[in-house]
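[step 3/7] inverse_fold.run input=structure_tokens len=157
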């Protein structure tokens, strides 16, 4: 079975061209029906010419409502609250796999390692030709995730 892909194939090219020609012809027939004032004796089968203006206008109004009201409303309904932890950090990236997120303390636990100094072996200095005792420090702990309530309390109280 061939792999499904959107690449053009002869089958798709033939059907695409046929649909293109069909809808081009239908569009010209529609425009001719809408603007030519001749009655063909089919007035009992065709809709009123009022719909030649009303239907495109209705489509444009629906597209405007969708683009400026419905689509933003859908996006806003899918967005997390401002006070939510997920709006600041993705807990899945910070917590071990399989751990359920419940509070900020869970993110902070174990992240604040103390700033310890370790004494390492002496290092020969090429600049002053002496031996120095180097101090190696543990890496700086990752940034602490702050609860928005803590920040607001610190700034505004």
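[step 3/7] decode complete -> sequence:
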């Amino acid at each position: 079975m061939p792999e499904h892909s959107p690449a053009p194939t002869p089958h798709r090219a033939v059907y695409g061209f046929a649909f293109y020609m069909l809808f081009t012809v239908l569009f010209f027939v529609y425009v001719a029906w809408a603007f030519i004032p001749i009655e063909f004796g089919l007035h009992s089968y065709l809709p009123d010419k009022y719909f030649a203006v009303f239907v495109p206008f209705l489509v444009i109004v629906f597209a405007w409502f969708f683009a400026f009201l419905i689509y933003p409303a859908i996006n806003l309904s899918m967005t997390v609250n401002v006070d939510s932890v997920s709006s600041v950090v993705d807990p899945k990236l910070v917590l071990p796999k399989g751990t359920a997120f419940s509070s900020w303390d869970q993110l902070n636990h174990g992240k604040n390692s103390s700033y310890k100094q370790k004494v390492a072996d002496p290092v020969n200095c090429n600049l002053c030709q002496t031996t120095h005792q180097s101090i190696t420090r543990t890496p700086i702990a990752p940034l602490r995730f702050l609860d928005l309530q803590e920040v607001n309390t610190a700034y505004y109280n």
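[step 4/7] annotate
Residues 110-117 have pLDDT under 50 and may be disordered.
The first strand starts at residue 117 and ends at 124.
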